[in-house]
User: What shape does this take?
Amino acid sequence: MSASDGDAQTGATRMRDEATAWQMLLALRRKGGPAACAIPPGAPADVAALVELYLPFAQLSFGRPIVVAHLGQSLDGRIATMAGASRWVTGEADLTHTHRMRALADAILVGAGTVRHDDPRLTVRRCAGAHPLRVVIDSERRLGADYRLFQDGAAPTLVLAYADRVRPGERLGQAELVGLPRRPEGIAPRDIIAALAASGRHFLFIEGGGITISRFLMAGALDRLQITVAPVILGSGKPSLTLPEIVEPHQGLRPRLRRFSLGEDMLYDCILHD
Ligand SMILES: NC(=O)c1ccc[n+]([C@@H]2O[C@H](COP(=O)([O-])OP(=O)(O)OC[C@H]3O[C@@H](n4cnc5c(N)ncnc54)[C@H](OP(=O)(O)O)[C@@H]3O)[C@@H](O)[C@H]2O)c1
Assistant: This one.
């Protein structure tokens, strides 16, 4: 066997191990497999890192809903250019990470701005796993029905709007419209979480953008905030988080966190509530 055959075989074995580890994590999450999962002895470093990163999300038990948000940003805290282009601030590994989080979640949520700029599909394509419910906040009903996730029928899809903007039984393309109360802060994260929990969706993954995630963070409604930082400086663009002004740096949030390398990027998994 040549050296390159050996490299190819090692690569194939590693992929199989990673795929096996991922299947175990999925089974753990869906309660269809083992009651526990551990890093196999002698596992390659990438398999060990995979298990370490996703195990907390795979073995969730739901005494209460869990909300995790993710943003991919530049070194200078931008998630997109001013024109709204965000493909790709972070790299391939972070993209795969978001698909893995989708596969573990019961529902994925984005704000109207993300649908307008990215026309995302919000399905699981880069790993094994089922598509979760897709949820869009469009409180004033500014989005048209032409976006892919309203038309493709790939997964159940909800549009959350103020109740006074929704007629009974109304749809947007194939998506169902759900009316929620008009609160001083807009649609309240607690109303969203309660509406999803009422239909058995207890693990919510929020994929952006910055405005939507900032509102959840401000409301104290996030359990984890995942920020992936790419080694690029955009110098201008849409901000990651925007929170009420503070006066002194010590007033900033300093959460406990876990760090993971994702290719050239660094993922900070901030633990806001245990
Ligand atoms: N790098 C990344 O990780 C990443 C991820 C996602 C998106 N992006 C990029 O980020 C940009 C979009 O982000 P963004 O921060 O501008 O917008 P966004 O968070 O996607 O959407 C914000 C809009 O959603 C509605 N909304 C969200 N939460 C609401 C609430 N609680 N109550 C009422 N309405 C609510 C509002 O729409 P109305 O103003 O219409 O009421 C709000 O203006 C795009 O350029 C996209 O490409 C980057």
Q: What stands out?
A: The first helix runs from residue 3 to 29. Confidence is low (pLDDT under 50) at residues 1-9.
